[in-house]
Amino acid sequence: MENEQINSLSGTIYRRVTDSLRIAIVTGEFKPGQQLKMSNLIRRFGTSQMPIREALQQLQGEGLVKIIPHRGAQVKSLDRRFVGNICDLCMSIESLLVRKACEKEDRGWIKELIKAQEVYDGLSKEEDSPDIIKANRRFHKIHNEIACNREALDMLHRTNTLLTVIRTTYGYPKDRIIQVGKEHHKMIKCFKKQDVKGIVEVQRGHCERAKIAFLQEMPK
Question: What class is the 2-75 domain?
Answer without folding.
Answer: mainly alpha
